[in-house]
Amino acid sequence: MAGRIPDSFIDDLLARVDIVDVIQERVPLKKAGRDWSARCPFHDERSPSFTVSPHKQFYHCFGCGAHGSAIKFLMDYDRLEFPDAIEELAGRVGLKVPYEGGRAAAPQQSDTADLYTVLDQSARYFQRALADSATAKAYFDGRGLDAATVAAFGLGYAPDAYDGLRSALGNSPQRINLLEKAGMLTRGDRGGMPYDRFRGRVMFPIQDRRGRIIAFGGRVLEKSDGPKYLNSPETPLFHKGRELFALWQVRQAQQKIGRIIVVEGYMDVIALHQHGLPQAVATLGTATTREHAEILFRNCSDVYFCFDGDRAGRQAAWRAAESVLPRMREGRQAHFLFLPDGEDPDTLIRQEGSAGFEQRLTAATPLSEFFFAHQESGTDLRTADGRARLAERCKEMIASIPEGSFRDRMLELLTDKTAIRWSLSASLSPQMREGVEEMLEERVAQLRGSSGPAAPAAPQPPRSSGAVDAQRSVVRYAVALLLQNPSFVESVDAPPYAFAALRRPGIGLLIELIDTCRARAAVNTAALLQQYEQREEGAALRKLAVLPLHGDAGTLQREFIDALAVLAAQTKQQRTDDLIAKQSDGGLDDAEKAELRGLLATRRR
Ligand SMILES: [Zn+2]
């Protein structure tokens, strides 16, 4: 674990960075009053419900609920880890990130940078070795790759030796340690000295979304004991369930990505790129995960999955479908393309060219069709039992689809398949018919009613009036005012707070916020939200951060002072009630009697 980054640094950073600039570089923003707006980069929509507030330094989407600080935006949009997002922002404003925990943390941090360096050096070592190897060059020639493609993908060759890379780059114990950590060296079963993991293989560098090399895939050149394809193991930089081969190249090739084609192998990807379809990516020796699906759809709304037509290919396709369904937000489309037996994208595009492959893509099976074909197989829809079984099988998966027209369409199809064929079958007794219909109706009602665990929260339109809500709870209103304007803390008297004892939900939170704002002068709305991101109160605070408040800063600050005064008065009332209750219960001591008299006197005034 890297050392903790102090909150005060994060405050300072979020105060210096302008979130509008950060987002503007990635999503075109339009000025809308005090704020900026855009079509949301996290869900598909026609009219903009994504707003960025320079005042609060955060973004919020009224459509899908996406929200957060500049840090959160980089994490979600660029898919960076928290410390990387901080590093990125700190780099923009020339700050150096301090890590608490001193020495233990510092080497860890430089380690990451060193890992990138050593992987980059490995790639260059493999490229030099390719230039020197007639066999390896002949392999790529034989697969029809031209020099530009070999260069664009940074392809290389790992010589058939146990200490090729190790002796070229591992000139100290620290370097050997780094190479091992980067997955480039292995110790095998016997322990002992680490040696080259990749031997006698053509090498495919795997890049992250920022173009940095994070791992390699290697394919054997000659028959050997090892597997045909070997990938880097999971390392601090490489998590195969989150990475897609060539996504970097796809994003480099085009400004606006119209579609992405997911294929199975490195050579398939590269052949498609070379033959005019620079939209191909591949998963790295794993099935398509939900994370993959989300990354794919964040880059474009049309995804084509390409599989072998055999049994294994169909199984892989089904796993992809399972991962994709919970990601099918409005406007997204997934298609499945099955290739003829014995063919793969590499061989097909070389035979048919991009036009031929394009035709296959046009004829690809939509997700809905593939879904039902798979679910219906082995089920006899002419029988009531078969139809009921189909409804049962589909129920959970359809419920996992986010609300929207795709889910409606799937429900419609399910109803058609289970009800229409039903009416064609006259041979069933009326009772049986009723039973199944009832069951299906119930199922469909359940489906429509439940949004499923993975579905996003229902859209929340901007509230027209904050005042109505605010009246419901003064505490809530005070929290909203302070959260949106942390500098209001200046008008709060030092503790103890007159309202500290008030038994109302949210009082503890209000006091915590006041203390935080007092202790951290630079804190802004985004930094406060960031702090509560992982906490239970986070969701409530996010709503309050976008609660529309009417009036200029001066008016709002007076309202904040008034709100605290109301809370103080309520606290006194509560104390009065408590004392009166205790009096009738068993009596008060002298101090309490005096206190009660005082309270009643002030109330009369
Ligand atoms: Zn959104």
Strand content: 5-15%
Q: Can you tell me the CATH superfamily of the largest domain?
A: DNAb Helicase, Chain A
Please, how many helices? 25
Mean pLDDT: 83
Number of domains: 5
Question: How many strands, which pairing sense, and closed or not: the largest β-sheet?
Answer: 5 strands, antiparallel
List each distinct ligand once: zinc ion
Number of separate strands: 16
Q: Give the neighbour order of strands across the main sheet.
A: 1-2-3-4-5
List the helices and strands and how they pair.
Layout (H helix, E strand, L loop, with lengths): L6 H10 L2 H6 L5 E3 L2 E4 L11 E4 L4 E4 L5 E2 L1 H8 L4 H11 L9 H31 L1 H9 L4 H6 L3 E3 L5 H6 L3 H9 L3 E2 L8 E2 L4 E7 L5 E8 L8 E3 L15 H7 L6 E4 L2 H9 L5 E3 L7 H10 L2 E7 L2 H14 L8 E7 L5 H18 L2 E2 H10 L7 H16 L5 H20 L5 H20 L16 H7 L1 H11 L22 H13 L5 H8 L5 H8 L7 H33 L4 H15 L1
Helix pairs in contact: 1-22, 3-4, 5-9, 11-14, 12-13, 16-17, 16-18, 17-18, 20-21, 20-24, 22-23, 24-25
Descriptive report:
It is a single chain. By secondary structure, the protein is of the alpha+beta class. A five-stranded antiparallel beta sheet has the order 1-2-3-4-5. The model is unreliable at 103-108, 420-433 and 450-472 (pLDDT under 50). The protein has five domains: 7-92, Zinc finger, CHC2-typedomain (DNA Primase, Chain A, Alpha-Beta Complex), CATH 3.90.580; 105-238, Alpha-Beta Complex (DNA primase DNAg catalytic core, N-terminal domain); 247-371, Dna Topoisomerase Vi A Subunit, Chain: A, domain 2; 378-449, no CATH class; 466-604, DNAb Helicase, Chain A (Orthogonal Bundle). The protein binds zinc ion (ZN). Zinc ion (ZN) is lined by residues 40, 42-43, 50, 61, 63-64, 66.
